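Run log // design_07
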């Protein structure tokens, strides 16, 4: 499977001591090349994003602010997201990466890539996110004639920026599996946040309890996500996330394993659509991130991992019956909520 790579993404880097360093991207490229993975790294596809592409999603005043802060090289986007010199160009590289992957997927049916800055909203950034590349790519695809876009966000943190951007839109179905926002940043993404106006029912938040792992994800996807997405019948699926649902991630508290991430990649690939892309960005345990990203990619491609996942995981914290019961209660409540909008059995 093709993986367009924009070298400039390495500059998306918040500096020494920050959880998000730009070297994660070239490190993964070297990792898959060293393994001889069936992933073809290719040059970026098409033209870089224009300012007009960004204006389909973001407020001009916010973009102008980013340009100025990037030029000066200091300031705060939010408490956890410091400005850095050249961040504008680095952000454009990340958007270009997502756009390139979308272009490949629309042409060939599927693609891998880097991207997923889902905390960036219309007028503000945060959570290490400056420009919402996923939203920009979705709007670009629609400008090319794609009607319905499904965004399947499986990052451990909720994509508050993406939800805001599409909250009143019935052409984009936003589905997010994430850790219960009562226990983690950004504090939104609850079950009853379902959209507004013509977009009501087109935001599907699945706030999983802490320690939720493979069995909880299976219940949520089989019983809620799949029925809703089949009813939506997307033209394009943009799946994105990373390794931060893994039990060892220092910024989250979910219970996924390497095998569970592989299964999650398979679920993303199985969602009903003509074209599909899987973007990678998150993960804050450096020892597990490459294998987590590889597991998501191999699951998406339908490939068997080149190493026994149990050898990578160490001693996983297996989700217990209490966690599964909490997930079951959540999904039963979700069926009641979404049966109003979709063919979901209560």
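design_07 sequence
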């Amino acid at each position: 499977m093709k993986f367009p790579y924009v070298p400039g993404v390495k500059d998306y880097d918040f500096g020494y001591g920050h959880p998000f360093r730009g070297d994660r991207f070239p490190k993964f490229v070297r990792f898959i090349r060293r393994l001889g993975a069936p992933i073809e790294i290719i040059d970026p596809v098409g033209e870089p994003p224009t300012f007009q592409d960004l204006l389909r999603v973001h407020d001009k005043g916010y973009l102008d602010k980013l340009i100025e802060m990037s030029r000066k090289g200091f300031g705060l986007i939010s408490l956890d997201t410091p400005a850095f010199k050249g961040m504008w160009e680095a952000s454009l590289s990340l958007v270009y990466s997502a756009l390139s992957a979308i272009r490949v997927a629309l042409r060939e049916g599927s693609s891998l890539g880097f991207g997923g800055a889902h905390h960036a909203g219309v007028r503000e950034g945060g959570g290490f996110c400056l420009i919402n590349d996923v939203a920009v790519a979705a709007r670009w695809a629609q400008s090319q004639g794609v009607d319905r876009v499904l965004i399947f966000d499986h990052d451990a943190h909720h994509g508050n920026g993406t939800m805001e951007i599409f909250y009143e839109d019935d052409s984009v179905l936003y589905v997010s599996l994430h850790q219960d926002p009562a226990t983690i940043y950004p504090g939104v993404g609850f079950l009853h946040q379902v959209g507004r106006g013509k977009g009501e029912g087109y935001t599907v938040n699945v706030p999983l309890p802490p320690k939720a792992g493979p069995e909880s994800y299976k219940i949520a996807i089989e019983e809620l996500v799949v029925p809703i997405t089949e009813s939506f019948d997307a033209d394009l699926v943009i799946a994105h996330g990373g390794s931060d649902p893994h039990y060892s991630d220092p910024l989250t508290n979910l219970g996924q394993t390497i095998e569970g991430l592989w299964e999650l990649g398979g679920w993303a690939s199985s969602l009903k659509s003509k074209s599909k892309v899987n973007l990678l960005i998150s993960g804050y345990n450096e020892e597990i991130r490459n294998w987590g990203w590889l597991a998501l990619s191999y699951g998406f491609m339908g490939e068997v991992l080149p190493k026994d996942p149990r050898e990578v995981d160490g001693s996983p914290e297996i989700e217990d019956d209490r966690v599964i019961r909490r997930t079951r209660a959540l999904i039963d409540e979700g069926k009641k909520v979404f049966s109003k909008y979709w063919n979901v059995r209560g």
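The chain has one domain: 2-338.
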